[in-house]
Specification:
The strands form two sheets. A two-stranded antiparallel sheet has the order 1-2. Strands 3-4 form a two-stranded antiparallel sheet. 69% of the residues lie in helices and 4% in strands. A hairpin with a 5-residue loop joins strand 1 (127-130) and strand 2. With 308 residues, it is mainly alpha-helical. The chain has a domain at 104-129 and 136-157. Helix 4 (60-79) crosses helix 5 (81-102) and helix 6 runs antiparallel to helix 7 (140-157).
């Protein structure tokens, strides 16, 4: 019995490895086939094309394509260290650019809240109107509920920027006392074992959660491609415009879009963290913070002036 169980376990492992490497090999074919035939998944005027986009957006095929790209870039980076540093600078620059732009949503949220208070308490208006000719006019409750969108913009699109700037809270049990290269190993394992799996799982749930509020008939994560292509005959756009109150904010589908974008930001930042930790591990303590673009409030300039 023990021999049979061991043989069964060994066979399952072999089957899993064959499945893994087969899909990894097919990833290169799938990648170039998708590039060569964009109309099959980007022509959204065709229902079948849109359903293919929805299906492959959370499929094993896409996962292996991204894994193959990551492995290829990593191998090139091992050979050419400057290339990997360029990837780090590009990913961190993207995170900083997106974060610095959408951080202004916090200021907009404050200004809009002030306007709402003035319109309600001083002018006693039930609505707010913007523009000339044909103005944009909504009930005050619409603008009050829309404040949550600004908060969501900051949380989802500034997450990578905050990590680059060192603003996230670290649950530090042994990290601070660890040696330099031990810290880099912890960073690499954290990126690969925690950040990426968390973001991928959230993406798998969030992707179909998004599309169920954009099109009908509703796609499901359990649907095979053949079933989705049959559903494509009845496909039509059905963007969610239902608010929590009669005159309240009615574009809650934007929150589903932001959930998906949040996963993209976390995955890209996880790759940047892994590459930076790997490079600093190889180059030693003198490379810590190399090319890191961190915001300051003038502390560096004051310190520089104090030395002269």
């Amino acid at each position: 019995m023990e021999n049979d169980a061991a043989a069964g376990w060994f066979g399952a492992v072999i089957d899993g490895l064959i499945w893994f490497f087969t899909n990894l090999g097919l990833a290169f074919y799938n990648f170039f086939y998708a590039l060569a035939n964009p109309g099959l998944w980007l022509d959204w005027s065709n229902g079948e094309s849109l359903m293919r986009f929805i299906y492959y957006g959370a499929s094993a095929e896409l996962l292996f394509v991204l894994l193959a790209i990551f492995l290829v870039v990593t191998v090139i980076g091992f050979i050419k260290r400057d290339f990997m540093w360029a990837c780090v600078r590009g990913l961190e620059g993207f995170a900083n650019g997106v974060g610095r732009f959408f951080a202004w949503a916090g200021l907009l949220m404050v200004l809009q809240q002030i306007i709402i208070v003035f319109m309600q308490r001083i002018f006693t208006r039930p609505d707010i109107s913007f523009g000339f000719g044909i103005p944009l006019q909504y009930d005050i409750s619409w603008f009050a509920e829309e404040l949550k969108l600004y908060n969501a913009l900051v949380v989802t699109l500034c997450v990578s920027y905050t990590m680059v700037q060192g603003g996230h809270v670290r649950v530090d049990l042994f990290y601070a006392g660890a040696k330099f290269r031990t810290k880099r190993v912890i960073d690499m394992l954290g990126a690969l074992l925690f950040m990426i799996p968390f973001a991928v799982i959230t993406w798998l749930y969030g992707w179909f959660f998004l599309w169920r509020h954009l099109v009908t008939p509703n796609p499901s994560a359990s649907d095979r491609l053949e079933l989705l292509l049959r559903k494509a005959r009845l496909l039509r756009w059905n963007v969610e415009t239902i608010g929590f109150s009669p005159n309240g904010f009615n574009a809650y589908f934007l929150f589903k879009v932001l959930l998906v974008l949040f996963c993209v930001m976390v995955i890209l930042q996880a790759v940047a963290v892994f590459y930076r930790a790997l490079l600093e591990f190889r180059e030693g303590p003198e490379s810590e913070g190399k090319y890191l673009d961190k915001d300051t409030l003038g502390e560096g300039e004051e310190a520089f002036e104090g030395t002269h």
